[in-house]
Request: fold
Amino acid sequence: MDFLRNLFSQTLGLGTQKERLLDDLSLEGVARYMLSERCHRVICLVGAGISTSAGIPDFRSPSTGLYANLQKYHLPYPEAIFEIGYFKKHPEPFFALAKELYPGQFKPTLCHYFIRLLKEKGLLVRCYTQNIDTLERVAGLEPEDLVEAHGTFYTSHCISPLCRREYTLSWMKEKIFSEVTPKCEKCQSVVKPDIVFFGENLPARFFSCIQSDFLKVDLLIIMGTSLQGRGLAG
Reply:
């Protein structure tokens, strides 16, 4: 998050005396700016808050958040379910949770369709999402429109560094809903969806896109995230 804050400060000129772009710091002021001739390139940065109205819990809300409702998995601490070290030793809790949250059971929200509208209007540079629910794709965004900063369920890979065989969404879904721990057909190591666990690096696409995208942005819209968390807890 410090990397993002520094990048925003440098590329967007935060903290410097620049031309005032909004006539009013409100939704109406943003809307007027977006309709003006000065706004041609928009980036969206979104988190779990845009999917809660679809029925997907966020992570940290008291009593209703995901981390507050993991007692049945008997974890040493809630975040362990998304830690790569714990997953390699005990993958079962993650896959049990994945069955409850699996993509395809939820529908996009107005926020997701708003981002698609930006694309249709030719305004969207990119949508950077912290979410792993794939609802941006369901709403109509293409892979090139997205940077899935915390990865995606869309593909999966064997966790063995000597194998790394890729598996499809439908293959993983069949395993999860059969309540079978997914094992590689080649080497029998565990197969993990391509989501970023604590202890893993962000996808290379995140770093390759962010440097160029933010040099040509007129408006950054942040929705559903405080930018305070780290990893999947964001």
